[in-house]
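U., I forgot to send this yesterday:
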Amino acid sequence: MALSVYAASPVKARPLSGIGVLTIREGGDDLVLYREPGLGRVSELPAAKLPALFTLPGPASGSYPAVVLSSRPGWLRIIYDETESYGWLERRRGDLFLTWEQFLNGRACSLLAGLRQDYYQLRRAPSSTAETVANVGRGDRLQVGMVEGDWINVRDNRGNDGWLRWRDDNARLLITLADPD
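Result:
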């Protein structure tokens, strides 16, 4: 009896959120990454080779976002490839680091596809047990008003206000930035 086995492509994990986003300006020298700040070089690559989280709109277009996992004075630990390898990058003049709270406040976003149903529920308060105000569709444009922990206060395109999770319990993103109008 012949047995056929088909190897399915592994499902790509949603990106880790870390503590914030480093916006790296286009051009300039390659990024030099270390195992520890200044010790044990692990990689050298152009910013364009960083994993594509999203396209930064407006004046930041032409810049590259990188997830920042942690920081030390003068150094940021970033994810630099699709396998979530990380390295320490010395802070460079002209690059901008923002915590997620700073980065998301006032931006437009949308929920990613393939999430659990409860992530698409707009809630009255930042709690999974709070009353549901409305359901949000995948791809619906959401305007972020404020960030509170793992929750964002948003207004959807139908005028509903409420709270949604922006990252899950495993610190993986549930949102992406919406394309500008």
